[in-house]
Amino acid sequence: MNKKFIRNERVLEILEATAKLGFIFFLGVAAPNAAGHIIKLLGWVPDYKNRYRTERTLSTLEDKKLVRFWYKNGKGKFELTYEGKMHLANLKAKSIKLPHGPEKWDGKWRMVTFDIPEKLKINRRRFARTLRFLGMYNLEKSIFVYPRECKKEIFQIAELYLVHKYIRYIIAHSIDPDIKIRNNFPYAKY
Predict the structure, then answer these.
(1) Segments of the chain assigned to CATH 1.10.10.10
(2) Domain at 96-183, CATH class
(3) HSE of 83 in the Cβ direction (CA atoms, 13 Å)?
(4) Which of 121, 132, 131 is nearest to 162 (CA)?
(5) What value, to the nearest 5°, has the Cα angle with vertex 19 and ends 130 and 128?
(6) What is the dihedral of CA 153, 155, 160, 163, to 10 degrees?
(7) pLDDT, tens digit, for every residue of 82-124?
(8) CA nearest neighbour of 167 among 99, 112, 86, 130
(9) I need a surface site. Which of 76, 103, 118, 184 has the fewest CB within 10 A?
(10) Are 163 and 114 in contact (CB under 8 A)?
(11) CA angle (149, 91, 13) in 5-degree steps
């Protein structure tokens, strides 16, 4: 199994657990003590390997400012930062797959348009980058095209980046000329 995949899975599990709970309280005077609590919380085997990997992952997440630890009166608190929430959204969004299907194309283009305000420009960039990563064709700056039904997946991604209310999903019967767009989807049977 790929080590990077394992690390991403561990990061994803830790970030998801923290996001669900909002924050994690633990007793102790050092951040590594949080590893034992997280291992128990996630139901992992509390052995040396898991503890070491979890401590390393937590340390890396803290260095990247994705999580935050602090202590008061001998009690620690561990929570996701805003950047941690966006990193979690990136990991989740990239695990979503758009349908390819071997069936013949129905002749309709699915267009995603958006007008995301400047105050959310980082989320806008991440959303657009994810659409490109998933294989959508970037027709114009804020217009993406795809030959298969993908409304559910697009709105899942938009919700992860907190931009769902700025997204429009359009089904178009034709885009002229569409030869450049068709060349971008060689697997679709036209």
Answers:
(1) 3-87
(2) alpha beta
(3) 8
(4) 121
(5) 10
(6) 150
(7) 888 888 888 888 889 998 877 788 889 999 999 999 999 999 9
(8) 112
(9) 118
(10) yes
(11) 125
Nearest alpha carbon to residue 58 among 101, 92, 28: 28
Q: What is the DSSP letter of 98?
A: -
pTM (two decimals): 0.73
Residue for token pair 């994705």: 66
Specify the fold of 3-87: Arc Repressor Mutant, subunit A (1.10.10)
**Whole-number Å distance between alpha carbons of 150 and 117:** 24
In sequence order, the β-bridge partners of residue 25 are 77
**Six-digit token pair at 157?**
């991604």
Alpha helices in the chain (DSSP H): 3-21, 33-42, 48-63, 82-95, 121-133, 151-160, 179-183
